[in-house]
Amino acid sequence: MSLPPCPQCGSEYVYEDANHLVCPECAHEWTADQAAASDDDGLIVKDSVGNTLQDGDSITVIKDLKVKGTSLVVKVGTKVRNIRLCEGDHDIDCKIDGIGAMKLKSEFVRKA
Ligand SMILES: [Zn+2]
Fold first, then answer.
1. Distance 24 CA to ligand 1 centre (A)
2. With a threshold of 0.85, does the pTM exceed it?
3. DSSP H helices in the chain
4. Does pLDDT of 39 surpass 70?
């Protein structure tokens, strides 16, 4: 069984101590459970119907959304590929054809 690299410094010299993992290089300690969840930075973002979204997912917009500061509207049904989750009120970072990079609220999208 191989251990995951240190989530803090990326060291490969991680060892297991009792029920947690220890990095000898930066002294970071964590549990295997946390390591498994760190794939998505511990961030859990769900769409309008409760599906868990992940970086790289494709989503569909379920509501016309005005783009702040412009007269553009992201129409209902717009498909958005390769989203990136982020923290905050608008928790999806993405790029929409014809509009460019913008942020969406997960409550207004559905996993495609
Ligand atoms: Zn480390």
1. 7
2. no
3. 32-37
4. no
